[in-house]
Structure formats: C-alpha cells, structure tokens
Amino acid sequence: MASTERLYFADPFLHRFTGRVVAHAAWNGAPSIILDRTAFYPEAGGQMADRGVLGGAVVRDVQVDDAGLVHHVLELSEGGALPEVGAELPGEIDRVRRRLHMALHTGQHMLSRALVDVANAHTVSSRLGETLCTIDVDLDVLDERKVAEAEEFVNAVIEDDVAIRAFFPTPEELAALPLRRQPKVTENIRVVQIDGFDVSPCGGTHCTRSAQVGMIRVLGVERNKGKGRVLFSAGRRARSELWAEAGTLRGLSRAFTCGPGEVPTSIDKLRRELTEAREALGAARARLAEHTAAELASALEQSPEHRVVAVVEGASPESLRAIAARLTARPEAVVLLAGQGPEGLPVLIARGSGASFGCGAFLKRLAEAAGG
Fold first, then answer.
1. Does the CA dihedral 158-162-165-170 come out positive or negative?
2. What is the rounded average pLDDT of the residues 50-61?
3. By the 8 A CB rule, do 297 and 325 touch?
4. Among residues 219, 339, 238, 237, which one has the least CA distance to residue 288?
5. What percent of the chain has pLDDT over 70?
6. pTM for this entry
7. Where are the alpha helices (DSSP H) in the chain?
8. What dihedral angle (degrees, nearest 10) is formed by the CA atoms of 317, 323, 329, 332?
9. Which of 230, 233, 231 shows the shortest CA–CA distance to 213?
10. Does residue 324 carry a pLDDT above 80?
11. What is the pLDDT of residue 222?
C-alpha cells in the first residue's frame, strides 16, 4: 500500500479536502481508517495532531506509522461502523487549531535560531503542548538577559514579514543549505526556510510569512534534567495570555483605586502595612500572654499539686505555648490550657523540668474520654 499523500505539504492553509478510504486499520487498539490523501497533520516532531471532521465523524486522533500511512481515529457512536473501503469522504480541519500550531511551530524555529545567534544555545528538543511549549538547549544554565534579547530578535523578524518556504530540496540543493541542525531522516527530506534567518529540516505545518506568527513570548527560563529550558508561546495563544493577564491587572487597579502601572506600588504599600500589623499583633499577643500568665501564676502558687487548668478565650496555639512557657519556668508546674475560637478548641498540656506528670498519656486518655 502506498503511503498517504499529505496535502498540507503543499498548502498549510488547506482546511477542506476529499479523500478515499483505502483501508481499515487500528492505532493503539482503536479502529482507524487510511485515506489515499489527507490534509490532517499526524502528531510528529513535537507538534500535536490536527482535529476536525471526516465524513461527518469527529476526528479524535491522527497518527502516522513507519510505512508512512496516516491513521485517522474517529469518534463513532455505539455500534457505529467505519466508513467503507472505497468511500469518498469530505474532510474539514479545525482551522483555529491548525493556525495556532503553524504559529507555534514557526515561532519555535525562529526562537531556536535566535538562541543560537544570541546565546550560542543549540536546541536539543522541543515540545508544542496543549497549554505549554518548551525548548531544551545544550547549556545547563541560560542567561535570562540573553533569552530576552533572543525574544526581541525574533519579534523584529516577525515584524519584517519575511517569506517562509517549505520544500523538498534535491540532494545537491540540500548539501548547499546552511541547516541549523541535521535531518533525522535520509530520504524525502523537507526543509523550512525563513528568508535570511533560519533553515531547518522539518515535516510540520508552518506559516508562509513571518508576520503570520503574530508574536513570540518567552514565559520563563528554568533547568530540566540538567539542561536549560525556555518556556514560550506564540500567535493566538500568546495574545490570549496577554489579554488575560491585562484583565487581571485592570481588576487589581480597580481594587486598589489606582492606574494599572501603579499596582506594584500599591501592593508594596499593602505588604508594608501587613508587616506592621503582624508585628503589632505579635506584640499585643505577647502582652496578653504575659498578663494571662501573671493571673494564672497566682493560681499555680495556691495549688498544692502545682497545677493550673484554664480556658483562655480566643487564644491560638501560639498564645497557649507562650503562656505555658512562662508558667513552666517553675520546675514543679503542670499546666493544662485550652483556647476557644472559631477554628476549634486547641489544647496544650505542659510541665516544668522537675515534674513527672505524663502529658502525652494524659492527653490520650482525655481524647478517648471525649470520643476523639
């Protein structure tokens, strides 16, 4: 059986086509159909598969095997059958998804090129995920300033709207091309050439001009398995992320009754006020603990067993510890304290260094008696 003709090689913007069913097959246990030709891109090279509709059925997955046959996995109703061999099926690609993948993949090529030129960082792998795209390079540490410079470089090339060509060169043409990396196959090598900028072997779907990428946006730099990793987005996804972040910033500016650019200053002011309030609260709690401990100390002095039992209204576990620490400075003291507050009833049992009271054993018996 001849390999599937892939229509997106000639036209990445092709969204409607017809193909003839040449075989029934299976992919990872799921029934699939093989067409004589397809515009659906199968998952490969770090790029996700296309989605869409084929013969009225939703295409759930698209994969390619070692023989070059493209498997279309359909969502069938219960008891539904695959289209018959020989049937001509209309297909329609999810245009928004395809267009995003074109921008992401072309953006990845451009950012990989810029990282070489700016930071001497060569791409060893890349992944274009549903929510996150990454480039791993051969450096263990990436300078964030260099990555920002590479991002700016790519966006300048995007603004220049240079031509992008995807083609199958002859062996002689291929030998003369300044490839950024060597091809992973030895036959039918396809090359994507971004005019005056980058030349790389690739079988993915790409934009035909750099302005179609829209923009490239670096989201962060990190280390992964001993390699430097760049997180990025492009095109529609990058715009959506920026709009969402801008909406969050506008919401904060309304909450702080300031302009969007003044939000960081307002947050810094709020942090300072919170720190001051915490310090004041800590001081107040310390004074309260001191006062409460002084009151309970007199009861402790009057106890023939050197014990004090008390419920401290509104006391937190930290306050109970502070009070107990003052009381157990007396070596013979045994202190049983509880707090009362909206979050429950903290209980603390402590003893001085000279007491032999079994705090843990007593608390266990107390819990059992209370059904705890």
1. negative
2. 96
3. no
4. 339
5. 99
6. 0.79
7. 95-119, 144-160, 171-176, 235-255, 263-302, 317-327, 359-369
8. -80
9. 233
10. yes
11. 96
| Rg of the chain, C-alpha, whole Å | 34
Cα 239 to Cα 232: distance, rounded to the nearest angstrom: 12
Nearest to 177 by CA among 189, 169, 165: 169
Q: How does residue 327 score in pLDDT terms, banded at 50, 70 and 90? A: confident
Is 300 within 8 Å of 352 (Cβ atoms)?
A: no
How many Cα atoms occupy the beta-carbon half-sphere of 300 within 13 Å? 25
Identify the residue whose tokens are 């009151």: 295
Q: Give me 206's structure tokens.
A: 């790409």
Pair of tokens at residue 97? 């998804």
Amino acid letter, residue 109: H
* pLDDT value at 372 more than 80: no
In terms of Cα–Cα distance, which of 337, 308, 333 is closest to 321? Answer: 337
Answer whether 22's CB lies under 8 Å from 54's CB.
Answer: no
Work out the angle between the directed axes of helices 95-119 and 235-255 (0-180°, nearest 10): 90
